[in-house]
Amino acid sequence: MAEAVKMNGYLIEEDTVVPRAALPALIRGVKALGQQYNFDAVCYGHAGDGNLHIRIKTSGASGSFLEPAIQEGLRALFELVSNLGGTISAEHGIGLVQKRYMDIVMNETQLRLMREIKKVFDPNNILNAGKIFD
Hints:
By secondary structure, the chain is of the alpha+beta class. It has a single domain, classed as Alpha-Beta Plaits. Helices cover about 40% and strands about 15% of the residues. It contains 5 helices and 3 strands; from the N terminus they run H-E-H-E-E-H-H-H. It has helices at about 1-5, 25-35, 70-85, 100-105, 110-120; strands at about 10-15, 40-45, 50-60. Helix 2 runs antiparallel to helix 3 (about 70-85).
């Protein structure tokens, strides 16, 4: 599925997870956000554990998650996921896209603890530098 949607221009992939009962609301919400923020989305994934991959495509744009319009839409998407009792990343983990949205699902204390744990195990910041924490 992933390769098929990439070949059709769905270049931005999000890896969300919500309680299984919230999957219909998430899919409806994704479609509504697509209309609001001018993107198309294909949803697929591991419904048995509430993990939904959301592939996004925009018309007339580069398809980069760095575009301001895409960032607004992604923030709204992740807020929807959080409001449905979910989180912004399932099995793929936090990376370059999600790191700027961690404040939606984690408070400052949680983020500080993660930074401090990373410092203990990686004092020179050489392991995945810049992937989650700058």
